[in-house]
Amino acid sequence: MSWIQVYSASNSLEAHSLKGMLESMGMDVLLKGDSLASATGELPADVVAVTLWVDTLREEKARSALHQYEAQAESVWFCPSCQEENGGSFEMCWQCSTPRDEF
Ligand SMILES: [Zn+2]
Predict the structure, then answer these.
(1) How much of the chain exceeds pLDDT 90, in percent?
(2) Distance 84 CA to ligand 1 centre (A)
(3) How many CB atoms lie within 10 A of CB 6?
(4) Ligand 1 center to 103 CA (angstroms)
(5) 99 alpha carbon to ligand 1 midpoint, in Å?
(6) CA of 49 to the centre of ligand 1 (A)
(7) What is the DSSP code string of 19-63?
(8) Which residue ranges form the domains of the chain, and what is each CATH number?
(9) Which of 46, 47, 94, 98 holds its CA 20 to 30 A away from the CA of 37?
(10) What is the pLDDT of residue 38?
(11) What's the whole-number mean pLDDT along residues 33-59?
């Protein structure tokens, strides 16, 4: 199997959630750059860029899933309860936990 980089995450947390997303679609995912230092808290997790790698045969599928993720993440929504702005990837308000309305 050969690997190809499909995404560079801005932080470790994002990388791991994307890895989970792709794995749930049946893909093998490799994370690179997720250093032990960031895991042990010696460095802030967002210092290190983490890249996602998939099997070249899955590249197209992975890229389309990541594209959808990015499009969704860009569309912010506003909490009907506290008017807080939330990222598109949140299913509930990060501030008051009100579930996101259907749009
Ligand atoms: Zn809220």
Answers:
(1) 53
(2) 5
(3) 22
(4) 16
(5) 8
(6) 30
(7) HHHHHHTT--EEEES--HHHHTTSS-TTSS-EEEEEEGGGHHHHH
(8) 3-74 (3.30.70)
(9) 94
(10) 47
(11) 71
Contacts of 60 (CB under 8 A, 6+ apart): none
The C-alpha torsion from 43 through 23 and 4 to 35, rounded to 10°, is 10
> Is there a contact between 28 and 76 (Cβ–Cβ < 8 Å)?
no
Q: What pLDDT, in 10s, does the model give residues 51-98?
A: 999 999 999 999 999 998 888 777 888 999 999 988 877 889 999 999
Gap from CA of 102 to ligand 1 centroid (Å) = 15
Beta bridge partners of 29: 54
Cβ atoms within 10 Å, residue 19: 22
The alpha carbon of 63 and the centre of ligand 1 are apart by a number of angstroms equal to: 32
